[in-house]
Design a protein that fits this description.
flat, single chain, 3-stranded antiparallel sheet, 20 helices, 11 strands, alpha+beta
Length: 498
């Protein structure tokens, strides 16, 4: 049951006019955004006549925004909200009012925000706010993907806990070296396999540090303790005993890989993100284009142009753009276009534009390639991509992938030839109009860097695809609202100059 939001009545409300500056970013966000949409978005997540009233969903959602804006753990966020007047003002609390328990925020995130449509709704609402405030968004869609490492990486939750515990110990030792002899004994290599032993060890380390009031007063020590305790709670509640099961290995280059997720992002030249799709790390960029176009259209911005790199120039995307009268500015990549289709899984091999190699359906990248036909102008080029045969031998997809028992090699072959569709697309790319569109692509790379550097998007804040989707929705909402504020300020400044 949802508690009714009430306007706080307090003799101290005037304090906010004194201690929260008029130009504070939280004051600006609160003034810009009507958060009532949160109640509609989460209405089905609450019962109407059962149990005691829950905290207002608007307030709980605002806690999540603060968590993303200021990159705080649940515990540090709640602690700061208790004394930070700007936080209390933003949360619609009176100055003397108490705050929630940090476990309440954790439960809200896991129990009330389970629907993955929350991400799309948050992006849609931010775009709606831009349009309602008179910002004209271009019909040009700039697309790209950015990767996010899984919270537990390719490690198990137990290994991750040990790593966090090690970081805490190192910070303690840098302050007081005598603690080398005070810390509990580490689990041996056999005990590391026992989940309960690792949890017990981490709790003992935390207890030792907390017993020293001077040591635990250091901010960096506090934050490490809070993060470690939050992960212990997360592991206990989710019963995660292995690596993130939804995450997959993706490749940034021929010799650089990551374990996690991809966010496929679409934005306008005004740097407002208009659509997002989240997938596991191995998914192909080009396959997400139609979904992004549909989402942008649904969010109130009609797509007229698409700007992307070579990953988006596969035949299906070129045909889709032509059929919908959309100009597609994506440099033609012949290798993306002509894979062989002889075996059941052939259409699931994807081309990694950065590494210039194909990736198999299981996520393994080719280790070398061979090009034939260079010396015969009458024959098309044929590229053969060879995979690590040792991995193929134990791959669960080996029977469907064409692997033969006893084979010394496994390859995927591509015939490079230019069809009429490709020739027309290549000709269009030479026009001044398409070249002008292509110059807009750098903007999305800057936006991806902003998400990672300023909002912790380089690593998953939560476990699983659902957690990554929630992180994407809240992060994009924050980034868009801040961008809208900046655009409105620039618009007002231009009016004053005139």
């Amino acid at each position: 049951m949802i508690a009714k939001a009430e306007i706080p009545l307090s003799p101290y409300m005037d304090l906010y006019d004194i201690v929260v500056p008029q130009d504070h970013e939280l004051r600006k966000i609160k003034s810009l955004v009507d958060f009532s949409f949160v109640e509609d978005m989460l209405r089905d997540a609450y019962t109407t006549d059962n149990g005691r009233p829950a905290y207002p969903p608007v307030m709980m959602f605002k806690y999540l925004l603060l968590k993303r804006i200021y990159e705080l753990s649940d515990r540090d966020l709640v602690k700061r909200a208790l004394s930070d007047m700007a936080f209390k003002y933003f949360l619609d609390l009176s100055p003397e009012e108490n705050v929630i328990d940090d476990t309440t925020l954790t439960k809200f995130r896991k129990l009330r925000l389970k629907d993955e449509s929350v991400m799309d709704e948050l992006v849609k609402q931010s775009v709606k706010i831009a349009l309602e405030n008179g910002l004209n968004l271009s019909g040009t869609l700039i697309v790209d993907s950015t990767h996010t490492k899984a919270r537990y990486g390719p490690k198990s939750a137990r290994e991750y806990l040990l790593e966090l515990c090690k970081n805490l110990r190192k910070k303690v030792y840098s302050i007081d070296g005598s603690y080398h002899d005070k810390m509990p004994s580490k689990p041996d290599h056999k005990q590391i396999g026992q989940y309960e032993d690792v949890i017990d060890y981490c709790k003992k380390v935390i207890s030792v540090v907390k017993d020293d009031d001077k040591l635990s007063a250091y901010i960096n020590i506090k934050e490490n303790i809070n993060l470690l305790e939050e992960v212990i709670d997360d592991v206990n509640e989710q019963l995660i005993l292995s690596k993130d099961e939804d995450a997959r290995i993706g490749h940034k280059s021929a010799d650089s890989a990551f374990f996690g997720y991809k966010s496929h992002i679409a934005m306008t030249p005004e740097r407002i993100i208009t659509a997002v799709t989240v997938t596991s790390g191995e998914k192909d960029d080009g396959k997400q284009l139609e979904s992004l176009v549909d989402k942008m259209n649904d969010n109130g911005v009609k797509v007229e142009n698409i700007v992307g790199d070579g990953a988006y120039s596969e035949p299906n995307n070129i045909t889709y753009a032509n059929d919908h009268n959309i100009k597609l500015s994506a440099k033609l990549s012949n290798t993306v276009l002509n894979g062989n289709k002889k075996k059941p899984l052939d259409d699931q091999f994807t081309y990694n534009k950065d590494a210039k190699m194909y990736v198999c359906p299981e996520g393994h990248m080719a280790i070398r390639k061979y090009v034939s036909g260079k010396n015969d102008p009458d024959k098309p080029l044929r590229e053969s991509y060879f995979f690590d045969i040792e991995k193929c031998k134990v791959c669960p997809l080996r029977d469907k992938c064409g692997y033969k028992e006893g084979s010394r090699s496994k390859s995927y072959n591509v015939t490079v030839k230019m069809s009429k569709l490709h020739e027309d697309h290549q000709a269009n790319q030479e026009s001044d109009e398409y070249k002008t569109l292509a110059r807009e692509r750098y903007k999305i790379e800057v936006k991806n860097a902003e998400l990672k550097n300023n909002y912790g998007y380089d690593e998953c804040a939560y476990a699983g695809l659902h957690g990554m989707t929630l992180q994407a929705g809240v992060s994009v909402f924050v980034v868009n609202i801040k961008r809208i504020l900046k655009l409105l300020e620039e618009k007002n400044d231009n009016k004053e100059e005139k």
